[in-house]
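Job type: complex structure
Entries:
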Amino acid sequence: MEFFKEISKIKYEGPNSTNPLAFRHYNPDELVMGKPMKEHLRFSMSYWHTLTGMGADPFGEGTAVRPWDSVEDKIEKAKIRVKVAFEFMEKLGIEYFCFHDRDVAPEGKDLAETNKILDEVVDEIEKEMKRTGIKLLWGTTNAFSNARFVHGAATSCNADVFAYAAAQIKKAIEITKRLNGEGYVFWGGREGYETLLNTNLGFELDNLARLLQLAVNYAEEIGFTGQFYIEPKPKEPTKHQYDFDTATVLGFLRKYNLHDKFKMNIEANHATLAGHTFQHELAMCRENGVLGSVDANQGDLLLGWDTDQFPTNIYDATLAMYEILLAGGFTTGGLNFDSKVRRASFEPVDLFYAYIAGMDTFAKGLKVAAKLIEDRVFENIKEERYASYKEGIGAKIVAGEVTLADLEKHALTYGIREQKSGRQEMLENILNRYIFG
Ligand code: XUL
Ligand code: CO
């Protein structure tokens, strides 16, 4: 059965095409820096927003028109959605997907039944993966939507909830392994707090580390070799999320000696909610050797929450790809669109327009970023900017060959000899030239 009958496979038609159902920049096999675009970008479909996001908001119910959802039985519906998902990915030429346990299958009356239903739906996913060759970028668990997670999961004050979350994670790692997932994400959905008047912050962080350590142990025990990622986010749903940003997560991981086991899954809109740019978070990961995977979306700077919009901002996409290329590109990770269509874009075809926009934006960003790196546009300028550390006192500082007294002597003798302009506006204009010609 075909679900998107009016839509055939989306093709690359080149930058001059005016066909809204074609790629203008994403040309999967075109070589960029000697590697096909699709291998640089490793696009992935988010199962949750694409298949189960209905457009509900705090003021009204979902608006999405999804004809395949008309079947009553929840398990049957879940199985049909699997077919829809794979037809969608095939038509867009997306070779990876990501999911939470609860996106793909409904919960049963208890954990045992829930796990049984999940296995049944995973059977269908496995068949479709074999048929199409589409792969699992990462799996994860949803330990935040159900009311049992009211006080958090690993950081809940209730030990039964800690155990329940652990059981869910155990199962989610098992299915990720079964589907050959290349990674597994921990996003701390409700791992945070509203008020310190009732919260033992130190104890909750210890518990978060305990659960992550148990997950590491279990992965080793069953031979799951996929990469573990933590996805930082500063707020929402809780006021203070523990995994605030990359720097905070690095501090946490190092304190609990977990830093060798985790990389980051950076989400664009989470970075901006933390008061950073997307590029900042990626650069911080690159400098610390923890750039793992990316949830590509964009926020609305006029709004203070996670809007999960499809990325169309060419500056952000270019600078993100610039960081990713500088870091050596993705290995296990990829570009997952943790993005949803707006509530008023309720027709199935809107899902295609949205992914085409996101994929084309990042493809164009990749091409521009590659050119910037090949021409060493910023590298040469940065090298020149720090030249004073290459010789004289600067070289001695870097080599650790000076004392404060030596530096005092230097300052007394020379003062500040020369300052140079940072040339920010010139650089921004050069960036524009690379993007727009
Ligand atoms: C929530 C979010 C999640 C994670 C996976 O803001 O980004 O969907 O990506 O749990
Ligand atoms: Co995300």
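Summary: The chain has a mean pLDDT of 98. Residues 429 and 435 are 10 Å apart (CA to CA).
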